[in-house]
Amino acid sequence: MNLAIVNGPNLNLLGTREPGIYGAETFESYFEKLKEAYPQVQLSYFQSNVEGELIDALQDFGFRMHGILLNAAAYTHTSVGLGDCIKAIDAPVIEIHISNTFAREDFRHKSFITPAAKGLIIGFGLDSYRLAIESFLKEA
Ligand code: DQA
Hints:
Blueprint: E1 2-7, H1 19-22, H2 27-37, E2 42-47, H3 51-61, E3 67-71, H4 80-88, E4 93-97, E5 119-122, H5 127-139
Parallel strand pairs: 1-2, 1-3, 3-4, 4-5
Helix pairs in contact: 3-4
The chain binds 1,3,4-trihydroxy-5-OXO-cyclohexanecarboxylic acid.
1,3,4-trihydroxy-5-OXO-cyclohexanecarboxylic acid binds next to loops.
């Protein structure tokens, strides 16, 4: 099974960015742990702060991966383009959020990703990504 993790803007700063909300671990360190925990899964990782680059990555992964874990970060709440892209690709997308966006500001309650996603895992910290992998594995 091959799965891609796609992270949106400011998630490259995990570890130092608002650690009270997002924790103190870098995504690179967490990603190494995921790869060790799931040797049977071929995991790819892409991060960008640029909306169009995220769409390009989804269009690329979306026709050759079994599934995609997408944390579109702030673009979740603004991007018609990302929502449309998820509808256009073959691979199922699980929407991920580290924090519980529904317990935060109102503008974070709107998602352009959810209507197009297979499912939504939010609020479990970085463990949200592992839970999504477990879900893909259960269905394999
Ligand atoms: C986030 C939640 C978003 O509202 C925010 O803009 C992020 C991270 C999360 O993982 O909790 O950058 O997607």
